[in-house]
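Lab meeting, item 3. Inverse folding demo.
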């Protein structure tokens, strides 16, 4: 039995990373929305209503910490499931992300099975 499709927004300034996430999730029936920066992410969240957001921390203009701060201040998005998506694998970075309001934390490079499990858990 195929799991229910999940609408996922990948926010990353790297087109290659966005494509990789798409390639991992779409074959499993998930809908993947994309944003290349924090401002675009906020617009896409407003318009596309994703169930889960994978949000890169380091981006130009508006970084992931500012995006999560804005989301958590908006009553409409306080319960939106958002995972920090970053190349930073240090222990203190994970704790910092969770304290900032992220629901989970996943590191790059992408491990397909770990990513799919994370998405299912957050959407559940």
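The presenter then showed the designed sequence:
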């Amino acid at each position: 039995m195929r799991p229910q499709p999940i609408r996922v927004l990948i926010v990353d300034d790297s087109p290659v990373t966005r494509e990789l996430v798409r390639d991992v999730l779409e074959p499993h029936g998930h809908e993947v929305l994309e944003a290349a920066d924090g401002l675009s992410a906020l617009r896409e969240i407003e318009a596309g209503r994703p169930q889960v957001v994978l949000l890169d921390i380091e981006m130009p203009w508006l970084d992931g910490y500012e995006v999560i701060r804005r989301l958590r201040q908006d009553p409409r998005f306080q319960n939106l499931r958002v995972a920090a998506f970053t190349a930073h694998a240090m222990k203190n970075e994970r704790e910092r992300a969770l304290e900032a309001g992220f629901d989970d934390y996943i590191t790059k490079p992408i491990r397909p099975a770990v990513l799919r499990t994370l998405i299912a858990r957050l959407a559940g």
